[in-house]
Each structure stands twice: as C-alpha cells, then as structure tokens.
Amino acid sequence: MKAQKPRAPWKAWFLAFSLLLAAVGLVASDCKAPAANRIVLWHAYRGAEEEAIAQLGARYQAETGTAVEVLAVPFLAYASKLSSAIARDQGPDVFIDAHERLSSYREEGLLARAEAAFPKYDIDRYDSIASTVARDEDGAAWGVPFALKGVALIVNTELMPELPASVEQLVKARNDGVFPLAYESESAYVHAPWLHAFGGAMLGPNDAYGFTGESARRSVAFARGLVSSGVVPNGADGALVKQLFESRKAAAIIAGPGVVSELPPHFPYQVVPLPPLRAAPSRPDPFLTVELLLLTPRTASRPEVSAFARWLASDEAAKLRVRAQVVANNQPWHDDTVVPVAMRAFHEAALRSRPMSTRAAMRATWEPVEQAIRGVMRAAAADDAAIDAILAESRRRFESARPRAVSASPTRGLVALGLGLLLTAIALYRRAKPRFWSGVRASAGAYAYVVYATIAVFVLVVLPLVAGAVMSFFAGPRHQMTYAGLGNYVDILTARGGPLFGYGSFYRTLLVTVAWTIANVALHVTIGLGLALLLSRPLLRAKGVYRTLLIVPWAVPSYVTALAYKGMFHQQFGAVNAILRKVGAEPVAWFSHFSTAFAANVATNVWLGFPFMMVVILGALTNVPKDVLEAADIDGATPWQRFSRITFPLLLPQLVPAVVLGAVWTFNMFNVVFLVSGGEPDNQTDILVSEAYRWAFTRHAQYGYAAAYAVLIFGILWLTSRLSRRWQAEST
Amino acid sequence: MTPSTRREVPCCEVRDLSKAFDQTTVLSNVSLSMKSGSFTVLVGASGCGKSTLLRTVAGLEPPTSGSIWMGGRDVTALSPKDRDIAMVFQSYALYPHLSVRENLAFGLRLRRTPEAEIVARVSEASAMLGLDALLDRLPRQLSGGQRQRVAMGRAIVRRPHMFLFDEPLSNLDAALRAEVRVEIRRLHDRMGGTTLYVTHDQVEAMTLADTLCLLRGGAVEQMGAPLALFDRPVSRFVAEFLGSPKINWLDGQVKHSSSGLHIAIGGKALKVPDRYGQLAEQPVLVGLRPHHLTTASDDVPQFATMNVTFCEALGFETYVHGTLSGMGDRTVVVRVEPSHRVTRGDTLPIGIRPEHTLLFDPRSERALDAPT
Amino acid sequence: MSVRANVKALVVHTLLGAAVIYALYPVLWVVTIAFSRDGLGTDGFVFPWPRDPSFMNFAIATGISTGKGALFLRQFVNSLAVASATALMSVAVAAPAAYALARLPFVGKRTGLRALMLTQMFPTVASAVPLYFLLSQLHLLDRRAGLVIAYSASALPFAIFQLKAAFEAIPVELEEAAMVDGATRFGALVRVVLPAARPALAVTALFAFMSAWNEFVLAATLMSREEAFTLPVVLQRFVGEHAAAWGPFAAGSLLVSIPVMAVFYIAQKQLLSGLTAGSVKG
After folding, report:
1. I want to staple B67 with a disulfide (CB 3.0 to 4.6 A). Which of A351, A465, B76, C2 is the partner?
2. What is the arithmetic mean of pLDDT over C138-165?
3. Do the domains spanning A39-149+290-355 and A152-285+359-401 agree at the CATH topology level?
4. Which residue has the higher pLDDT, B180 or A264?
5. Confidence tier at A14 by pLDDT (50, 70, 90)
C-alpha cells in the first residue's frame, strides 16, 4: 500500500483565518472622521444629473472653503432613509426631492423653513409654478425650486421625418416592424396625459379618487385601443421603451430627459411637447414634478447651509446644471448658448405640464389606477360597462386603503396589557417546579455558552420585532399614528368590509400564500434531492463543475435575477414566449392570469431556492453510512427501495429542519412576488408579506397595518408549528 | 486483611457509589478498591452499569451519591482533566483532524509539556506500539487495528496515574483481539500504572485481570482474583458468566446416609466435597464444569450415560453435547480427549471428578458455601 | 454490463445537463445584458447572446468610466470586510450557543430553541425602523461595525440551528477523550469539536457571508457616506424611480457574484467532505 502523503489542513485555515482577521481589522478601522462643519447634501439622481451635482458641490467647496459632502442615495431607499435619518438628526443638511412629498415631510417635522435660501425677492428668478409649490398657503418658503421633471414626446426623425401635429397623426405613421409610439402603457404617471386630455384628474378635491367616470373611462379605452391595434407595445416598462427607441423599433416615445442623455451620439431625434389629442376636449398635459432643495431642522442655526442651497439654485449654478436637467431657474433659458436643444424642448413641455398634487393621498392613487389600467388592457371585452366595473373596483380599493380615523382609548389596552403580564407571571410561577431554581443554578455553566447569542438575538432581533409588533396597535401614517387598539386587526380580519374572499382580502391572500409555500417547498425539495442524489454518485465525472454551476442561482444576487425573470416572462419580448413560439405554441400573457403569474413567481423562486436544498442534502448524504447501503444492495434492494427504505429515512432528521425553515422563509419571501409579478393580476398573486409591504410603503405608509399583518403572519406560522408538533407527537 | 498490617493507600477507591439517570438506577452502592499497579477488570452483561462505573471514575458522569478517591484524595467533584487519568474508548475517539503524531501529543500539549519531552514521549510510545510508519497519517487513513493502537498510544504517552479502558477490543477481529490482549497486559506490567478495564468478554476478563469485578444490575456480584471467581463463584450467575463452554447444571438432592453426605441425582449418588461441611437435606442445583466431567475410565468411574446430540471438535479438545439418561433433560457439555471419535446418536459413559462440584440453593441461587 | 453502465451515465449527465441549463439560462441573460452596449437583452430571442458586445457596462458599474474606480475598490473592500466579519462573528457567537444546545442540559433550553425558531417566523416589515433607532442609540450608524453587528445577529438563529445539528452528529467520545486528556469542556470544544465540525462551520460561515454580501436595505439605510457603501447599495443606485440602467446593473451584479462563486468553488470539498468518517469505529 502506498503511503498517502499527509495533508497540511491547517495551512488553508491559517490563510482563511488571517483573511478574516484582516476583515475584522478593516471593520474596526472605520472611515476617516468627516469634517466637522461640512454641509451634507443627499439626492437620488443618476447619470448626468448626479455628475452635475457632484461637480457643483466640489466647485462650491473650492470657491468658498466650506466642506461639502454629496451623497447619491439609491432611489429605493431614499424616502425611508430620509425620514429615519432626519428624525434621529443623522441626516443631511440639504436634500433634493419632489414637491409632492413636501407636505408629508412638513407634517413629519423633517423640514426647516427655507426663507433665507429662497427669499421673497427671488420669486421671479424661478419658474412661477415652481415658486408657488415651494411655498405654503401663507407664502412661507419650505424649499428652493431646483428642477422640473416631466415627460415629452421624443421622435426618431429618420423613422418619422415629419413631426406629428396630433396624436392621431402620430399613431397612423405605421411602418413594418416599427411601433409608431411606445410608452409605459401601464404606468399611471405616463397615462396621466390621456386622462387630463379627457378632462379628468387623478385626485379630485378633498382627496377624492379621480380615476373614475367619463374621463377615466374614455382615457383607458383610448389607451387600450392603442395597444390592441398594435400601435403601442403591450406592457412595456421604462427600460423596454428606451430599448425599443434605441433599436429603432419605436418611431416615437413618451419619456423624460433621462432617455435622451443616454442616446448614442448622432442618434437622429427631436423632442417636442406632446401634440394635441383631437378626440379629446383638452390638451394631453403630462404631470409636472418640481424638484426642490429642502433644508432639515438642524440647519436653522447654520446660515452657510442656506447660502449653499441658494447658490445651487442660482443663475450661475443653473447654467452648469442645465445640460443635465430642466432647471427651475429662468435665467439659463434666455441664453441659447448654454441650453441644449433637447433640454429646451423638455422645458417647453414642462411649462405646459400640470403640477402633481402635493396631497399625501396622491401617492396612494398610483396602485389602484395602475391596476385599473392593466385590468382594462387585459379584459376580454372592453365595453363601457366592463370598464366602469373595473374603475369602480379600483375606486373601492383606493377608498379601502385610506387611513381610517380609528382611535380607541388606550386605557383598555393598558388594562389588558397589565392583566396579561400578571397572568403570565402567575402562570410562570405556577409552572415553575420546586427544583426550578436549583436547576437554574446547575445550568450556570451552560448559560456561559449561550449568553452572547442570547443577548445579540434578543437586542437586535427580538426587540425590534416586538417594537414593530407594538406598532400594530396604532393606525395612520408614520408621523401621525394614533392608538387604535385592535382596530387594525378587526379591519384586516373583516376584509375592511369587503367580501371575505375578495381580491386582496386577508383570507384569499392567505390561501394564495399557503399554495405558494407548498408549491415552492415541494419543488425545492424534489429538485434539490434529485440533484443531490445524482451528484453523490461515486463515479460521476465532472462532479465539481456540476456542483459549482448548479449553485449559480444562489450566488448571483437575487434582485437582478428576479428582474431578469420578469423580463423573460414578458409577453411580447420575453425569452419564454420566444421559446414557446419556436416550438409552435401560443405565447402566453404570463401576468394576465392568476395561474400563469403564480407559475412565473414559483418558477423564479424555485430557481432561486433549489441550490440551497441541494447543498443541505448533499451535506446530509455524506452522513448516510455506505455499509448500510451496501448491505441493502446485498439484500437485493432495487435502487428505489434503497432510496426509499434507507437513504431517505436517514436523511429525514436533517431534512426536516431544513424543510421547516424553508417553509417559513418561503411563507415570508416577499421580494420575488414583489419583483416578478408585482402581485399581478390585481394583487391576486400577492402573498401576506407582500401585502404587508404594500401597506408599509405604498398605501399612505400605514406601518400599523403592516405590523398587524406581520403579527398575523407570525400567529399563523406559530399556530401551524404548534399543531404540527402536536400532530407529530400523537402519530409517534 | 487485618488491621495490624500496614495499610497502603489504594490508588483508586470507589465508595458507595450510586448513579441514576432520571428514574432508572444504573449503579447502586458500588464500592471498589484498586491497589497501585493493579489491573482491575469490570465485567458483566451489557447494561449492568460497568461502562457507567468507568465513566464515573473518569469524571465524565457525576455520581448521584457516593464518592471517588484517588491517591487518598476525594476527586468526586473534579473534572476529568484534573484526575490524572487516561482513557481508551471503545470507538477510539481519535481526533479526526489531527495526525497520529498530534493525536499522541494532544494531551501533553494541553498540559504544556516542553516540546523536547513531547517528542521523546511520542517516539517512545510509537516505538512501543509500532506506530513509527504511521505518525503522519490521519485517523481515517488507518485500519481498525492501527486506530486501536493509536488510542492506546495516546493513553501511554500521558504516563497517568491510572488507565481506563472501555471495551477497547470489541471492534477488532478475534485473532487481533487475542494479540492486543496480550499486548495490553504487557504494557500494563511495563508502565506500572493502575488499570481499570471494562469488558463484556469473560476471556479478556479472566486473562487480563489481577482483580475481577463482576457487576450485575448495577451492583457488585463478586470481586476477587479471576480464578477465585471461577472456582468459587458466590452465585449461579457468576458460575454461569465465567467459563466457556458454560457450566452444566443438574438437579439433585442432599441426602444423609450411613456413608455420610451425598447428592442424589437421578438415582445415582455423588459425593459432596468436604468444604461444604454439614448440609441439611434439601434440593440443590449442582454445577459441573465441562472439564470436570469426562469419559469414564479406570481413574474415574462411570457415573452416567450420555446420549450424544452434538459434537464440537476443536482439534486440541472436543466438546460433546447431550443429555444424561435418567437425570433430567438438561443439556450437558463434556470435554473429552480429541482421540475419542464421537458422533451424534452415540452413547458415552461419563465420569465425574466430584471434588470440583459446585452446589447452589435452587431458590436463592447462592452458592451453598458462600459467606452469608 | 458496460453498455448498461454507459447508458446510465448518459442518463445522469443528461439530467444534470438539463438542470445546469435551467440554472444558467436566466444568468446568461444577465450576462448578455451586461455585455451589450445598449444594456438590453430580452428582445424576443431564444438564445442569450449580446448583439453589440462591449465592456462599457462594466466600466460604468465599476466607476472606471467616471474616474471613480478607486471608490469602487473601496466599496468592494467594504463589502468583503463586512461580509467576512459577519461570517466570523456569527460563527463565533453561534458555535458555543449551538454546542450548549446540542450537548449540555440546562433550564430553558427547549424554550430558547423554540424562541429562536419563532424569530424566523416574524416578518421584518415593521422592524426596520426600531432597528435603525436602536443602532443610532448605540452610535453604530455609518459604521461598518454596525452593519456587521446587525447582520450577525440576524444570521445567528440559522447559524445556531446548523451548528447544533452538526455538533450532534459528532461523537461525544471525541470531547470526552479530550477532557480526559486534560482539556476543559470549552477547550474540548475549541480544540476538538470545532475542527471536527469544519465542514459545517464552513457552510454556516458561507451562509452568513452570503446574506451580508447581498444585503441592501439595511446597508442603504444605515450607511450615509459613499466610502462606507457596500456593493449592493452601489448596484441599487442603477435602479431609478422610472427605469433602471440595466446594463451597469447587470454588469455590477455579475461582478458581485464572482467572489461568492469563487468561495464556493474553493470551499466545496470542505463543504461536502465527511470529516468525521475516520474518527469513530473501524
């Protein structure tokens, strides 16, 4: 027998350990301390605008000697980061945000007055709409007008040499394989011009839902006509619109300046305001968003911050910004030498746009409006009655999502809490056996092992969860929560007065969640087990390669692959339908039906999750003793018997915890649902957690509601685990 | 043992030890004393508590009551590391991530022994056990026998006060077992430590022990020199446990007669050995070891006739199984010279060497000569 | 006989090949998008292949095109440091706890285990705000240490479950031998149990590493300086309110996943080897 060369197992570990030590060292040595008196500016801009802001910050610092720190925050985290940070006095001195958030920021107390940065005599320096929205009813300034955001028509001058005089003319200009017009047909924001043209408004007076009645019906019927006649691509998102335009598959698009700035050089295009819609009584004015420089409370005593904000909005700075954005400052627009042609067109379009309402309710209209648009687009028939039914449903949703004036006297809650604590104490006291304390003393040695984990989990996991759970007794938006007792729970469990199994009701969503969990876990385990068994075959070649390739889904960040899946399931341009067409099958509108949208979600989540199961099972398989399997072979077991009688029962002890955890995680796996189907159609594929997230982030930020959902989810899982434990105990 | 002799402090003493897991009593009032340099074997059927006793001595299990003394010191509350013991486990428990060399050195390193000393002791042990060629291997690269020797080496390098063995040979094949058995005893004699050894194998127990301690149901059934237990078992249990093939049983009756005391078995009379002294007339269980029965000859007159049912020829001796006609239907095993060709169905004249006869009370199953 | 074996091998490789295609197909689209100049991929094609190949998106994603390459490197180091420290810390804290749960009897063990499981059942939707408050009270905002602590704590329950199962699979005799050899219980844990549980430690560390490596929401909320950002935050910058810059986003995601793939490839033997195989019995 050849003597095996001893391995040096510690070498690799020494290396790994020193790497980790280096990492810890790096963590400990945190970033250098920031300058004490610096001005911090936050924004969520990208591309050319981000660069322009960064340059301006650097320039101001160079010219005045004041330290300026500019932070570009991811859009998705922007709002929550702002409110968390400013409330804890950890945020920026200045930040840039859209005017429609102004009122809610003010209500939350996140803003300081901006009189010094935007004095009365500066009013004429800025666009008049911008100046107006930056001030409250009493004329006090709460922000400095900074930039205007809106959409315009971008035309490919080669495909459409003649600029269209009306929307009707535009849509007639059909070429083979080219869409005359592309826009985000299911976005409420881009749909707004049609609504405005037909005389409607998203939000009526007194926060009334505006997407209803004649104007809304005609606008969606018109939009449906554009899509169904093949003028406009179906269900395109912003990226797809841009892609169609760049690849010359769309002659014109409705989009903002961002698309233009990323076009390749020498691309033949021209920007114009949206042409009139002859069929409608009014002009199709898009929404206008005014971006403001907003000051936070801690700047009140710092005149240099106001000076900086004023300078950013000044003529001098605006001249530099105007290449990247439609500045709210009037001065650059008088000077043709500094303004790019396309920007001027966007400016013109902006001047014709309609400023978005600053009401908090405005943001809550997006979800029901978009649902209504999608509903109409997908409806088999779209006569007036059908459309009206869809609109009525969307209105019902808007209204049921509105925060309710539930308030309860906290006395009863406090009494209940006190009683609960007392009863728990009594129960614990009675349950404690006489040997309890001596047992605790005897366990002291073991406690030394668990103390750090206990503290860490308690402080950083349990406490925040409990604090979150306490929120479920409060109602209303985050900054004005009122005690509601069990009001949120009652609301949820009675489906807010709607049908108990209606769309979006707790019970229906629960059923979907259960189906979602079962489908996912079953497929995870089946696929993971199958692959692990194949990979554990002793004579398999290229085992390492297979193993590595098969965990790829686990290694690539899930947010990008989930979005890739969404793209693959796109009806017109997705790879899945392309494959179906190749094999001669009908393409499927994946997100139009519950079953297909659900299947798309499951396909994505199974793809994301099977590598984990595979790895767990591969690990467990190494613990199955070979001699037992060999004994079974000798006993004449077939491969199936070998698996079902020996391998599987031996795997079970390690499989069961993984499956339980997997089930719990899948139950609470919101991001796949969020990113892939987005709950489509009509929130039907939403699961309980994604519903909770909607309450927290899109529906008036009603954290209390979200928390109540979280508590209910917890309750369901806890109950299930208890029942299954009891059931297990009984069956053995 | 008289009070006048100089009392030597025992190396290890177990006093009134009891151990219960939850409601189950595993050991009850076990007392045991081991002289320095002695080799004590705990033997018993599985579940008799012998491993628990060993583990309690090692300090791996806390006793429910009672105490353990080592070198005149109460060590009951001490953790294993402070007891100056070394242990060889049934499963060997080699550290899978360490080479043989490091496995051997592990305990010394923990005790911060100087490096030179470690090297010296490891090479000494490795030479003693023939591990030199294996020092750089990992446990998984060794055969079962090699692993066993590494486990012993790990104990030896420590030069402890006391060695504990927990069925160390049970995972080896028979030939190897016999070989290692001898080696263990040789090592014990050479190292001069005190050894406590657990086994269920009575051959190991008999061959290794200075003192044999037979446990039954968590209590000491009998303790003493191996041959004392073999020749003078205090109970039917001990008599049955030791000896292979097992002792034979016949039902008899103590009778007084004119010629003195005898045992009547199926109409024949068997002489009662002198050491039993005076016995009342009573039914008895007669124990006869296979080698105390033999074919009738001039020296040993025929006592009974055996109807042979089965025959085991081992080459150097032959065991014949059968029943004695007229003496019940208990199977009896007799050792005969291999020159006897016996087959099934034969009848064999059997004689008895009466001085070795063992007598037990059939109800209490205690030996009739046992101290009460 | 050998024909049958070949057919069997063919079937196995076909199945595995199909699984690999399933696993890679969406990723290939991401690769295609990353390497396409226009950052576009899914255009009604079946086979993912960049129409207009270019490294532009990688240049944008890494900030090389805007002269921020050094910053990206720094952010990469941030991610690496935070994820590694999280892996180390969660294993270091989880291991003793898991050991006690696996081996030592103590009052409250069952309750503790159940409570640990319960933490996994509670959706975190409402706990982000209290956590932010807590970390700001502890002066851990804007510090990588704060991220590490938050990540480690959230990775703990799973790590404890994993390690508990692993420790239970290790023969008790190993520790007993070490204790007889002169180790304290803790010494036996460190010198014998942990080395014997290396594969499980590696898996657990990898899990913690990955969860920290890919986490975005907390990092974006807690970190308010560009030099302190981790890579997922940087990546998320390519997603805007209305449209995402798909090309750089995809390119960046690929770059982010390379270290994880590398770690897995290197560690896979450790992950799957049965290290305890030789230590017990013959």
Report:
1. B76
2. 88
3. yes
4. B180
5. low
The distance of B167 to chain C (nearest Cα, Å) reads: 12
Domain boundaries defined on chain A: 39-149+290-355, 152-285+359-401, 511-690
Q: Which residues pair with A95 in a beta bridge?
A: A42, A294
Instruction: State how far residue B213 is from chain C, nearest Cα, in angstroms.
Output: 23
Residues in A closer than 8 angstroms to B138, CB to CB, are 6-7
Domain boundary assignment for chain C: 1-54, 67-278
**Three-state secondary structure readout of A94-156:** EEEEEHHHHHHHHHHCCCCCCCCCCCHHHHHHECHHHHHHCECCCCCECCEEEEEECCEEEEE
A1, A2, A4, A11: best to mutate for the B interface, most B CBs within 10 A: A4
Average pLDDT of every residue of chain B: 89
**Contact by Cβ (8 Å): C140, C146:** yes
- Name the fold adopted by A152-285+359-401: D-Maltodextrin-Binding Protein; domain 2 (3.40.190)
Write out pLDDT tens, residues A462-500.
999 998 888 888 887 766 778 888 888 888 888 777 777
Average pLDDT over residues B82-93: 90
Query: Is pLDDT at A639 greater than 90 in this prediction?
Result: no
| pLDDT, tens only, B4-33 | 444 567 889 999 999 998 888 999 999 999
Closest CA to A450 of C100, B50, B291, C30: C100
CATH: 1.10.3210.10, 3.40.50.300, 2.30.130.40, 2.40.50.140. Which one for B245-360? 2.40.50.140
User: B12-233: what fold?
Assistant: Rossmann fold (3.40.50)
Range 137-176 of B in CB contact (< 8 A) with A: 137-138, 141
Nearest by CB to residue A6, choosing from B97, B133, B137, is: B137
Token pair in block for residue A142? 């709460």
Verify whether the Cβ–Cβ distance C179 to B79 is below 8 Å: yes
Whether B97 has its CB under 8 Å from any CB of chain A: the answer is yes
Quote the pLDDT of residue C278. Answer: 30
Q: How many CB pairs under 8 A join A and C?
A: 393
Instruction: Please tell us whether the domain made up of A511-690 is placed in CATH 1.10.3720.10.
Output: yes
β-bridge mates for residue B210, sequence order? none
Tell me if A129 sits within 8 A of A355, measured CB to CB: yes
- Report the SS3 class of residue B338: coil
Say whether pLDDT at C139 is over 80. yes
Residues of B near C (Cβ–Cβ under 8 Å) read 55, 58-60, 79-81, 85-87, 89-98, 106-107, 110-111, 138-145, 147-148, 154, 158, 164, 171-172
Best of C173, C181, C186, C280 to mutate (most B CBs within 10 Å, chain B)? C181
From chain A, the residues in CB contact with C84 under 8 A are: 19-20, 23-24
Strand ranges across the sheet with B358-360: B268-271, B260-265, B248-257, B283-288, B358-360
Architecture of domain A39-149+290-355: 3-Layer(aba) Sandwich (3.40)
| Annotation: CATH topology of C67-278 | MetI-like fold (1.10.3720)
Per-residue pLDDT of B157-178, as tens digits, reads: 988 989 999 999 988 888 888 8
Task: Measure Cα distances from B347 to B314, B330, B352 in Å.
Answer: 20, 16, 16
| Prediction pTM value | 0.85
- Cα(C271)–Cα(C268) distance, integer angstroms: 5
Q: What is the pLDDT of residue B372?
A: 56
Whether residue C274 has pLDDT greater than 50: no
Q: Do B81 and C196 touch (CB under 8 A)?
A: no
Please give the residue that has the higher pLDDT: either C130 or A294.
A294
φ/ψ (deg, to 5) at B124: -60, -50
Establish if B99 touches chain A: CB-CB under 8 angstroms. yes
A7 lies within 8 A of chain B by CB: yes
Mean pLDDT, chain A, rounded, equals 85
Contact residues, chain B, for C184 at CB < 8 Å? 79, 81
At residue B4, the pLDDT reads 42
